[in-house]
Write a structure and sequence with these properties.
96 residues, 4 helices, mainly alpha
């Protein structure tokens, strides 16, 4: 992928995450039930649980989930960092 394609994919993903975050705030129980029943596989359910844990941890830390995922994907994908313990919501350095 070219840098432009990566950037476009990242922004599309962030838009979807922003919509997901708004939906989680307005309909948390219904959305959890809906996603839990329709993940399609054990792996899909596991990925859903991991993403939800990042969303909830970011909220507890007072961090914008969009800013967190932007920083995370930039560091992990574009910069090639593999020290994932330093890319958690509590430890990652976010832009102002």
């Amino acid at each position: 992928m070219t840098p432009e394609e990566i950037r476009e994919t990242l922004f599309r993903t962030l838009d979807k995450l922003d919509e997901l975050h708004a939906t989680l705030k307005t309909h948390p129980c219904a959305l959890h039930r809906k996603t839990s029943l329709h993940t399609g596989s054990y792996r899909g359910a596991k990925v859903c649980a991991i993403l939800r844990s990042f969303v909830e941890t970011s909220e507890l830390e007072g961090i914008s989930i969009v800013k967190y995922f932007t920083s995370f994907f930039f560091e992990a994908v574009c910069s090639g960092r593999t020290d994932y313990e330093n890319l958690l919501p509590a430890t990652i350095s976010l832009p102002a």
